[in-house]
Design a protein that fits this description.
The structure is a single chain. The chain is mainly α and about 220 residues long. The protein folds into 3 domains: about 1-50; about 65-155, Alpha Horseshoe (Leucine-rich Repeat Variant); about 170-223. It has 14 helices and no strands. Helix 5 (about 65-75) runs antiparallel to helix 6 (about 80-95) and helix 12 (about 175-185) packs parallel to helix 14. The longest helix has 16 residues, at about 205-220. The radius of gyration is 20 Å and the shape is elongated. It comes from Funiculus sociatus GB2-A5. This is HEAT repeat domain-containing protein. Keywords: Antenna complex, Phycobilisome.
């Protein structure tokens, strides 16, 4: 089966049928970033929210010079919290270090937890150690999902100095928090991490214990 041409995709993106536009966006996966981004931009303001969301995500995986300013602006100004969260996530995929400042602002200033969650995850994806203070603050907030994101991101930035602070989550009632902790500790080599992972390996939830086993193996291999 032959792939549609760029002209055909462009025409399909202008179809009044939202399903056609969605299919056209999906077919851009095979297209080089420089050719895909101008077409993605056609539907960034689409009336269909799902299409807008797909377009924002697509900008994160088709990096060109245009993508960063578009995503940063969406994160800071779009009225829809879902699109702002998508933009935060896409900035993490883009892995452009310029995303650090807008992501930090979103974490501190956005009123929606989903946007703040996406910002915390993406700060981990950027692997920028400057995110340490932001992520430590997230640990102390009331939102469990933000705690999950912060623990995972601290592992991503290899913040060994966070180990003492995150070990308290080994007793969390939320198994997803314990799983994120087990995964993060696999990137934070210390005697306390190994001790905690031995404890988490006996966790009653199979996904927590499996994550702990994998992390112990990772630490053993990275001696």
């Amino acid at each position: 089966m032959s792939h549609p041409s760029l002209k055909e995709i462009g025409e399909q993106l202008e179809s009044p049928n939202s399903r056609d536009r969605m299919i056209a966006l999906a077919s851009l996966r095979q297209v080089a970033p420089d050719e895909a981004v101008p077409l993605i931009k056609k539907v960034l303001n689409d009336e269909n929210l799902q299409i807008r969301s797909m377009a924002v995500f697509a900008l994160g995986v088709k990096p060109t010079e245009e993508c960063f300013p578009i995503l940063a602006k969406l994160l800071e100004t779009d009225p829809d919290y879902g699109i702002r969260a998508d933009a935060a996530g896409a900035l993490g995929y883009l892995a452009d270090i310029r995303g650090f400042e807008p992501l930090v602002r979103a974490f501190y200033e956005d009123t929606d937890w989903l946007v703040r969650f996406s910002a915390a995850v993406s700060l981990g994806n950027l692997k920028d150690p400057r995110a340490f203070d932001v992520l430590m603050r997230a640990l102390d907030g009331p939102e469990v999902v933000l705690q999950q994101a912060a623990i995972a991101a601290l592992g991503e930035i290899k913040a060994v100095e966070s180990v003492d602070k995150i070990l308290r989550f080994a007793q969390s009632e939320d198994w997803l928090v314990r799983q994120r902790l087990a995964e993060a500790l696999g990137h934070l080599k210390s005697d306390k991490s190994i001790s905690a992972l031995n404890y988490l390996e006996k966790d009653s939830h199979p996904q927590v214990s499996a994550a702990a086993t994998i992390s112990l193996k990772r630490l053993a291999e990275n001696k």
